[in-house]
Amino acid sequence: MQLDVGDLREFYATALGQAVRRLLTHRIRARWRGLNGATLIGLGYAPPYLGAFRGEARRIGALMPETQGAIVWPRDAPAMSALVEEDHLPLADGSVDRLLAVHCLETAERVRPLLREMWRVLAPEGRMILVVPNRRGVWARLDKTPFGQGRPYSRRQLEALLLEALFTPSDWGGALWVPPVDMRFLLRSATAWERVGAALSPAFCGVNIVEARKELMAPIGKPAKARALRDFVTIGGRAS
Fold first, then answer.
1. Residue 88, CB half-sphere, CA atoms under 13 Å: how many?
2. From CA 17, how far away is CA 24, in angstroms rounded?
3. Cα distances (Å, whole numbers) of residue 104 to 5, 161, 198, 217
4. Dist. CA 43–CA 34, nearest whole Å
5. What local confidence, expressed as pLDDT, does residue 235 receive?
């Protein structure tokens, strides 16, 4: 199921959406400190999180899939957003230093071609962060938020997809242990929910957050042990 850009914008305008933005931005910023001189691209619906890097990254942009729709972002500056085909990104090879994908992988029509495009545009030393609904979490089970749409992934499934696409996961984490309920008394204690959830039930977070780096060579599998042949077999004549 595809997300609609209007529904995404409305969600992030709610108190619950603002709490989600704060919690996830904190997790993302903990991994990416100091992006001076870097090119940062958001893929999916990343504007709520890209704003934290404005004025820090050298270049910044938000690419939104045509099946979702796009908004003009930001509103107070020249547009940095564009509507794109998810498996044909309008970027040069190796042109992106940091790639942030939110509301992206779980609703992609063709996941593997999308990951290959992400690999293509990422610089050799580049890194990307994926924020993906956790199939074991409560958020993926309720469809009243964007994180309840599309296909959630377990950590093992994400790892398999990334390795197949020539990415190596370098850091794993989670977020959104707070229940997906727009109630202010719960949201005021969201930070406490995150601390307790991370300590007591890390596998049941609402979203998986994985940072991965681009691999330039495919991994070499373990070679099979050769079987020794004891006798030669002569075909059509004598063995020489």
1. 4
2. 11
3. 12, 14, 24, 26
4. 20
5. 41
- List the domain boundaries for the chain: 5-214
- Look-up of token digits 């063709």: 110
Give the whole-angstrom CA distance, residue 78 versus residue 26.
26
For the chain, residues with pLDDT lower than 70 are: 1-2, 217-240
Return the HEC string of the chain.
CCCCHHHHHHHHHCHHHHHHHHHHHHHHHHHCCCCECCEEEEEECCHHHHHHHCCCECEEEEEEECCCCCCCCCCCCCCCEEEEECCECCCCCCCEEEEEEECCHHHCCCHHHHHHHHHHHEEEEEEEEEEEEECCCCHHHCCCCHHHCCCCECHHHHHHHHHHCCEEEEEEEEECCCCCCCCHHHHCCHHHHHHHHHHHCHHHCCEEEEEEEECCCCCCCCCCCCCCCCCCCCCCCCCC
CA 197, 200, 202, 205 torsion: positive or negative? negative
Q: Which of 128, 118, 148 is nearest to 38 (CA)?
A: 128
- CATH class of residue range 5-214: alpha beta
The terminus-to-terminus CA distance of the chain in angstroms comes to 67
The model's pTM: 0.88
